[in-house]
Design a protein that fits this description.
By secondary structure, the chain is mainly β. It is about 5% helix and about 25% strand. The chain is built from one helix and six strands. The strands form two sheets. It has a three-stranded mixed sheet with strand order 1-2-5, with no helix packed on it. It is globular and about 45 Å long.
């Protein structure tokens, strides 16, 4: 598979997290962040939940390791939940800021040069 005023990347990347998004078909789901940024700049990704009058699609999005990602199975008994898209009638999104430190102890920290993996469970 994302601030301080004036210290972020150019523009957030929007990822529409739904079953009809072609980025999720196939095997190459890479979003490159923080490329060519200055040390004080941080890219962000907006995970946009499925929504609409007729939408029933729901997702729980998890941060997983490469093995879990490759197998599309969560093995960790206490997986890290990134977002819960459980209100398909309402517009919802979650912003992930890709920085190596976090002002909040509950937020993820992203180290330069490492890969991070996200998967979801879905229901309709």
């Amino acid at each position: 598979v994302v601030s301080l005023g004036g210290v972020m990347g150019i523009k957030p990347i929007d990822v529409y997290w739904n079953i009809s998004n072609p980025v999720f078909s196939g095997y190459n789901h890479v979003i490159e962040v923080n490329k060519d940024n200055h040390p004080w700049e941080y890219d962000q990704v907006n995970i946009i939940c499925p929504s609409g009058v007729n939408s029933t699609e729901k997702h729980i999005i998890y941060s997983v390791d490469k093995q879990e990602f490759d197998s599309c199975r969560i093995a960790n008994p206490k997986p890290r939940i990134i977002a819960v898209c459980d209100q398909p009638k309402n517009f919802m999104y979650f912003t992930i800021t890709f920085r190596s430190f976090s002002p909040s102890p509950m937020q993820m920290e992203f180290k330069p040069g490492q890969s991070y993996y996200f998967i979801s469970t879905a229901s309709e």
